[in-house]
Amino acid sequence: MRAQSHTAARRSVLSYLGDYARRGDEIMFAHRRGLRNVRWSYRRLVSAAHRFARELEARGVGAGERVLLCGENSPEWAAAFWGCLLRGAVVVPLDKESTPDFVLSVRRQTDAKLIVAGDETPAAARLGTAQIRLENLEDEVARHDDAPYPSEDVGEDTLAEIIFTSGTTSTPKGVMITHRNLLANLRPLEAEIGKYIRWERLVHPIRFLSLVPLSHVFGQFMGLFVPQLVSGEVHFQDSLNPAEVARAARARKVSVIVLVPRMLDGLREWVERDYAARGRAEELRARLSNAAGTHFLRRWWTFRRVHKLFGWKFWAFVAGGATLDEATETFWHRMGFAVLQGYGMTETASLITVTHPFKQSRGSVGRLMPGSEFKLDETGEILVRGASVSPGYWSAEGGAETDADGWLRTGDLGEVDPAGNLYFKGRKKDVIVTAAGLNIYPQDLEAALNSQPEVRASCVVEWKGAGGAEPLAVVIPRESGANVEAAVGRANQQLAEYQRIRRWHVWTEPDFPRTATHKVIKREVAAIVSERLKAEGRGGEGEKAGAGEHAFILSEAARISGASPSTGLDSSARLATDLKLDSLGRVALLSALEERYGVEVNEAAFIEATTVGEVGRLFGEHADERVAPYPYPRWPRKFPLTWLRALLFYAVVLPITRLMSRMRVGGESNLDKLAGPALFVANHVTLADHALVLAALPARLRHRLAIAMEGERLRDWLHPPEGTRWFLRLKFLAQYALVNAFFHVFPLPKRGGFRRSFAYAGECVDRGRSVLVFPEGARAPRGQMTAGPFKSGVGLLAKGLGVPVVPVKLHGLYELKLKGRYFAPPGQVRVVFGEPVEFGAEDEPAEIVRELERRLDEL
């Protein structure tokens, strides 16, 4: 009752900011920036918000005036949002991918007084108005007091934000959202959560992994409002690659993933590919079929391997922003995961209905939110009214689409069962009315197609045939050469005679055009397919082609290398010579392609590809070679091994090192200023180099050091090639265990696998550990002073870690190695530490490499 009365007393969403303040130093946000994980406490967020409100006042931005907020999800974005609300200014959130023309159109419509934008938003730079860089927000507002900013004039009817729902027209419409609209959906959620909040302490903290942009109201609900109701943490994730999402959920001990349905489809495809690659696709289908109706615990045990992929703490997906395919919902439910979804639109402040985590009906989008009303008209269109409905649109065009009684026509079709569960049937404008007057709902046909193993995605649009309107299925095959005709035939067996698909087309691009929340833009699909079929003089089946993939690879390669897009290049273009991609450029291209295709390709296989055509085939076939992975164990950095390592160092490593080298140490004073983790870069001469550096370091740095080691060697020790004899396997395994026991090592491969290695290095730094790398990539051969120039990856690593970089020069080892000696006379071997240097975001990796080479040469 106390929670309910507090909920009812809220007069604006700013009351939630007061709840933030009471949570103090608990973590609110975590955001991957470069290779580091930046954490913000509730207190830090509140402090930045109050400072930002005063910054707005200092810049003359008054109550009711508009502020454009454009950038990727980040704690700074949240601070700017709350700061605007404190000031009474109106937030105009824009997607980070918004085009310059769209941003310019919105700015003109809203007469925005300020633009707050991230570095990745080049559109903002063209607008010629005062702006604040999101990345510099804290520095920009640091001069202001962080005492609570007075906001008594902000009430339920105060305009909080204007959300523009379309970026495809010259005059986009902006939906006005008031504090009343937001509270209408937050109050019932808070009251329902209050019934179960006492159990939260058993799983505290509940961590949310947010994959939905904060520029959309669903992203705001699940990124700014709902998590704090359970004292939760919100982790922002930039990459939408399914493997990266699963790794992030496992590493960060995430409980809930917030995403749009298309991403959930992609995760399902990723799991299915994993089973198929291990030759267990039929086993997966059989297990899913047998899981129907079984107890949750049995389903969890049956698919425990999948649960391990996401981490043992993970239990629920929350999907919104579009319609969730029933087959995908069933897939995850049978695996033992909860799938929650809601139905709504921007005009209703995100929610109309929502499913309950413990009272679900399969295929339903949930029950009506308390405080709202909905009904179906004679055509089945959903009408809604209540406090959550927007007062209208900012632009004069259209106005609020409500009738005299306040009912908002959603344009969506639905059905309601006797229990009050709503079932979404599709957009009214998408319904295909046949010549016989029968209604065909594209969603029914798409569900049948998407359940076929050959189909990765589909959409059904209207086609004007000789006999009138009929459905045209546009299909993206799961792999090259898939029998789409057979898939369509099986789908038709699930459909009524009048619903049967008689025309279909294979989409030649990796994905359909989509909105920022991944809804398919069907009008664009229909227009493109129509032009293609007319040009080909056909009205039916299309053919699979690879031109779209090759064009994208060429354009991305040009963007990454900084070269002008080359004309005349085709699938035979070579990555190294024609497209000028070095090893790091290949990694960047790999990441871009994985994001576009929504698949993970083995990096070693990608490195072997030399031409655009080979890369296209690799992705077109969703290649995921089953080569042994590089090992990234967590156990070497846990108790009691950390204590054992220290004991072994002083009992074994240090005495042997000093006995054999009798070394001297120089530049120790350069380490006095190091207050936290650092990146040490050293020349590489012998197998004992890492032991020498460890022995030379002061104790406060020595025992918190992770050392990069040749990845291929570590991998082959743990996963020897087939045919290796058992005694050699035992020997290699012992070597692997001992090197991890004596030294905290991690793999840094010579050719591929950089992303995982760099991410692991960032993870170590986040935990307060320094990192030692040998940037030459190999030991100097006998007779040579060095192993060659630094690898370009060290520049990217130094920039991404954002910590001081300490050059380390090992002297005297070359002469010992040349003579084949293992014991050095006193003073011959010296370890010299250079002065730490820091690099900024504006420094290019290549420049960093040259600077480090210069500094190391001078030691």
Give the topology.
Elements: H1 2-9, H2 14-22, E1 27-33, E2 36-41, H3 42-58, E3 66-70, H4 75-87, E4 90-94, H5 100-110, E5 114-117, E6 131-133, H6 137-141, E7 159-164, E8 174-178, H7 179-194, E9 207-210, H8 217-229, E10 233-236, H9 242-251, E11 256-259, H10 261-277, H11 281-290, H12 296-302, H13 304-310, E12 316-319, H14 326-334, E13 338-343, E14 353-354, E15 367-368, E16 372-376, E17 381-386, E18 408-416, E19 422-427, E20 432-433, E21 439-440, H15 442-450, E22 455-465, E23 468-477, H16 484-493, E24 503-506, H17 522-536, H18 547-561, H19 583-597, H20 603-608, H21 612-620, H22 641-661, E25 664-666, E26 679-682, H23 689-696, H24 699-702, E27 705-710, H25 711-718, H26 726-742, E28 745-748, H27 754-766, E29 770-773, H28 793-801, E30 805-811, H29 813-819, E31 830-833, H30 845-858
Parallel strand pairs: 1-10, 3-4, 3-5, 5-6, 9-10, 9-11, 11-12, 12-13, 23-24, 25-31, 26-29, 26-30, 27-28, 27-29
Antiparallel strand pairs: 1-2, 7-8, 13-14, 14-15, 16-17, 17-18, 18-19, 20-21, 22-23, 30-31
Helix pairs in contact: 1-7, 2-3, 3-4, 7-8, 10-11, 18-19, 18-21, 25-26, 27-28, 28-30
